[in-house]
Amino acid sequence: MIGSGGSSKVFSAFDSNKNLYAIKAIRKDKGYASEMESMIVLREYFVMEHIGEHPNIIKHYSCNPEGMIVHNDVQQPICYNVMEYCANGSLSTIVRNTGAIEESIARFMFVQLASAVQFLHEKKFAHLDIKLENILLDEWFNIKLADFGSGVSLVKTRGMTANRVGTPLYMPPEIKNLEKGQSFEGMKADIYSFGVTLCLMLFGELPDFSMFDCDASTIGTNQMSSDDFMDVEMSEEKLSQRWKYLSASSKDLIQRMTNEDPNKRPTIEEVLAHEWVYFESLDGLQSQVYLEMKARQQAISNFQSL
Fold this sequence. Notes:
Protein_kinase_ATP_BS; 2 domains; five-stranded antiparallel sheet; 9 helices; transferase; Phosphorylase Kinase, domain 1; Ser/Thr_kinase_AS; 37% helix; alpha+beta; Atg1-like
């Protein structure tokens, strides 16, 4: 087993030609009701089939909502998706265990993720669960956006959805406060979650922005507690030092993306046109990203072996 989340578990597996894949499986006799399990598996596959391939979106190869597995000589019904195997796990593991990412490296990874989100939005889909845990890393530490089980098509709804899904830490206020009969803009919700993701990459935590010299009244992240995101809690003093260290443009982008008012958040095209994205050239950073992430992984491994 290489991962788990919610009611699913992810396993690595080889086919007859020794190609390596990731299998996301949900046991139908545990967790959700059978109908809910099938819906999640089929929705993820539906989204992936409709949007097509992108270098920063995980590849899906097949889906079976009526699968079977033999465990301890007993057959058990499962739903499963066959996906691309990402050798370096999730970005969440790295940030949780080793802290904030240096700005130029975070920018490189951010641009890859933004490219995936732009592609998804151009296809009129919203992800609705963008978070560090759903950002996987291939063998070269390239970004792979994953887990489209909460994804929704916006083609026939003029961009609106009533699906109250996602992860509380990353949820925008309009989803948290959603009442029966209400809807929200799916793409603007993605922008908020993406902004929270950037904040965690650069801070390692979601700070209380009222501590800093900025207009904190507009920032939706102030509504949530983030004390337990990192395995090692950061003091207010360290967060304050981190805030002063970051570039003005990075702080501006975070504040814009996590604005409480979805109408004041940028589109993904406006995010990609923001000055922070083009603050410096990304050319030649691939090897630097690889070395930095590899060193962090080694540090995690060394600590776990103590």
